[in-house]
Amino acid sequence: MSNFKNNPYLPNLYYTDSLYFDTPLPDSFIDSKVLGKLKLGGVFDVAIFLAPKVYALKNKEEERIKIKGLSEEATIKNKININLLKELLIKDTNIPIQQFKWFKHLFQANMTIQEQLYTLKATNSKRKLLYDQNNIFFDSIPYNLSNGKLLI
Length: 152
Prior knowledge:
This protein has helices at 72-77, 82-87, and strands at 13-15, 19-21, 46-51, 54-58, 63-67, 95-105, 110-120, 127-131, 137-142, 144-146, 149-151. It is mainly beta and 152 residues long. It has one domain (44-151).
């Protein structure tokens, strides 16, 4: 990661559970068969990153939606797509989603399926979200700690 983070000679890095860059990497970095090199997972025209492990990617052939904590079945059932996620770029917007989740009960030696409300929204738990004058998200910056206190 240190080869890619904040490297002024490489494209901007967006990290979720994989590496995403805003322009192509030099070919010398990519080879899925060589240890230490990267595998190219796709090239996308549009990308939205709302929170850690919450993003959408789209090109002419496909659309990938990743939402941590939301099942693929619930994503499909609720018709979650990149256009819906774009709405979440507006400050204080959220989308409530009902889904069924499995819960393990070790002491009772059973499992239950329960309906659960999942609220999809941009989160600021790891980075401060920046909005323009129209309350549209455009960037984020890391929080800073000084002597154990959060500086905002």
